[in-house]
Amino acid sequence: MSLAPRAVLVHRTTEYEELLARHGTHGQAAFFLSTRGRSIDEVAGRHHRMRQALTDAAAAVPLQWRRSRVERADLDRFLFGPEDVVIVVGQDGLVANAAKYLSGQPVVGIDTEPGRNPGVLVRHRVSDAAALYRAAVAPGGRPDPLTMVEAVADDTQRLLALNEIFSGPAGHQTARYRIGPDGAPSAGESQASSGVLVGTGTGATGWLRSLWAERGSALRLPGPSDQRLLWFVREAWPSPATGTSLVAGELGRGDGLSLTVESDRIVVFGDGMEADSLELTWGQTVRFGIASSTLNLVV
Fold this sequence. Notes:
- By secondary structure, the protein is an alpha+beta fold.
- About 20% of the residues lie in helices and about 35% in strands.
- The strands form two sheets. Strands 1, 2, 3, 4, 5, 6, 8, 9, 13 and 16 form a ten-stranded mixed sheet that branches. Strands 12-11-10-7-14-15 form a six-stranded antiparallel sheet, with helices on one face.
């Protein structure tokens, strides 16, 4: 007997809740903000709108479904199941935060502040939640499959991301490594830089796009479902021992970009979640490419 779907509501702590945790009371938080020329009313208003959206999204879940809830900070400890319908209530970035822990489950993005969020990934209003939940489990449903990027280390560690994966120094030092696409002669080029970014078409609305624009790159930005990735090296430094000839490129399905560490420590993390990262040391290699799994966004 198959299990009923489980609705997993993903949310994050609001600014207002963070202020209360730090200052103890509404009054103390209001005083703190007032000394910096801000009013707590705006922050509290966003908090109440988010909480109301979360309540409404939960109320729209069919009665026969199971339910669960997870906060952003706990995603790396939450066990998602194959029968889950993941309901992200909040900002676009929260969908990306959850994506790396999923394996094909349908995702519904609920925008809590239409007009304030870009709505690239949280595309729907909470008033549409009930219809979206039905669509998520309907036979023959066609979610939007968004391409993801993966990093696989030579010790089998694996990392997924929806927007981009960054590899570089843990602090503000320079990373030393050898980099090259599959088939590059002499295993690529030795470089010294502030890191390497490999991004998807979804990431082309954020950090990847800023690097692309800064370079005036002739590479064509991918779309969210395109089977293409772009990669850029940040601030490569030319020297007698390090080069700058491999600083940007494109990866298609089956293509890979390998990076071999030539310094004490490099961290690899996805979608800005540095707390959940891979750590690589001297001689270790990590390969970047298109992930076999996609983020299945309900449209």
